[in-house]
Amino acid sequence: MSEANERHLQRAQAELRAGGAVLLRDDQNDVLVLSPERAAPDRLAALATLTGAPADLLISRRRAALAGLVAPIDPDDPRGVEPVAAPIRDIHDPSWRLAADPMLSGDGAAARAHALGRLRPAGRASAAAIALAKRGGLLPALVAVELPAGQLPGGATALDPVIIDARLLKEGQIAAGHLTRVAEARVPLADAENCRLIAFRPADGGPEHLAIVVGEPEPGAPILARLHSECFTGDLLGSLRCDCGEQLKGAIRTMAASGGGVVLYLAQEGRGIGLINKLRAYALQDRGLDTVDANLTLGYEADERDFRPAAEMLRALGHTRIRLLTNNPAKVVALGAHGIEVVERVPHAFPANGHNAGYLSTKARRAGHML
Ligand SMILES: Nc1nc2c(ncn2[C@@H]2O[C@H](COP(=O)(O)OP(=O)(O)OP(=O)(O)O)[C@@H](O)[C@H]2O)c(=O)[nH]1
Ligand SMILES: [Zn+2]
């Protein structure tokens, strides 16, 4: 993707996050959207009265099923993450918001069914809008109106939308972007005195990824490496809900004890759904869902990560053959697909504590982790 397009996407994402409107253009039809968790009620009302037709709530098919709008859908059915559109009968009647509530709280199925009309599959521009919301760490639930391609009704000018080409959000184009190595410093760690941090900045202006270079890993040799997705709760606070803190410190210690290695600290909090949504997923887990179903309920995939930036960083550091510390076979496959040879998978498991046994067994049972 060109730098101008990356910049444009970032602008659209920021606008949606700030409660503003985005118009996504496609050759079928355009769609004008607002995020109901961010946009002011008067803006939502202005959007809903823009054309003669009602505005739609765009949500995942699974969320629609959980909200009682369509028949239940099997947890492993891939159609669950497809976006659907449900007409909002009256934007001023807050019942429709129950289907856009992260927790799907209350016993609002009847109210939801009354507040929302007959569901239909979302078009391409709407699917792109949902991808934009996900990129921005928002709940994938949007209020939208469909417009004929290339037209913007007079009333829409007041909403002052950022206009983007929906095709920019096609999968594969959004993620990697090229990375620029921007800063480097020596940072002695308690567990690894000889340590350097190298920061990489994505072209789209997204958050930076870090390489934690422990010791002196030899370029060309199959070095020890770990892909570690950011976990504020586990890495920083020592949360017992997951195993991230131990895995991070454990990797650094293992590398320091064996001559060196590289931990890639990836800005992919919550397996790519962001911290806010991870906290929402935790709240759903406290109601009995497992980590996979919690993500799916929010309208996210079980794992939204793209490991291309990791492969790119390894290549930039001169390491194309690695021994990967992981229990996750998907990381081995993803690196292989992006030109990094994983010559060995090194198991990286830690004993369960009193809080994360269920989390770990779900990883093994539903995400194929070798635990
Ligand atoms: N959505 C979600 N993310 C979680 C949850 N618990 C931990 N995470 C995130 O999961 C990620 C953990 O990733 P990693 O440890 O890199 O990877 P992994 O897929 O578990 O694979 P390993 O290499 O075997 O550790 C971090 O971004 C955490 O924030 C959860 O319950 N829900
Ligand atoms: Zn964690």
From TrEMBL:
Q: In what residue span(s) does the GTP cyclohydrolase II domain sit? A: 181-347
Sequence positions that bind Zn(2+): 231, 242, 244
Going by the UniProt record, its keywords in alphabetical order are:
GTP-binding, Hydrolase, Metal-binding, Nucleotide-binding, Riboflavin biosynthesis, Zinc
Q: Which residues bind GTP?
A: 226-230, 247, 269-271, 291, 326, 331
Residues the record marks as active site: 303, 305
Q: Which GO terms describe its molecular function?
A: GTP cyclohydrolase II activity
| Cofactor details (free text) | Binds 1 zinc ion per subunit.
Look up the EC number in the record and give it: 3.5.4.25
One Pfam family matching this protein: GTP_cyclohydro2
Question: In which pathway is this protein known to take part?
Answer: Cofactor biosynthesis; riboflavin biosynthesis; 5-amino-6-(D-ribitylamino)uracil from GTP: step 1/4
Required cofactors, per record? Zn(2+)
The reply to whether GTP-binding figures as a keyword in the UniProt entry is yes
Q: Which InterPro entries match?
A: GTP_cyclohydro_II, RibA, RibA-like_sf
- Name the chemical reaction catalysed here: GTP + 4 H2O = 2,5-diamino-6-hydroxy-4-(5-phosphoribosylamino)-pyrimidine + formate + 2 phosphate + 3 H(+)
The record, for HAMAP family, names: RibA
Which family does the record claim for this protein?
Answer: Belongs to the GTP cyclohydrolase II family.
Q: Which NCBIfam families match?
A: PRK00393.1 (NF001591), ribA (TIGR00505)
Role description: Catalyzes the conversion of GTP to 2,5-diamino-6-ribosylamino-4(3H)-pyrimidinone 5'-phosphate (DARP), formate and pyrophosphate.
**Protein known as:** GTP cyclohydrolase-2
Q: What species is given as this protein's source? A: Tistrella arctica
Its gene is ribA
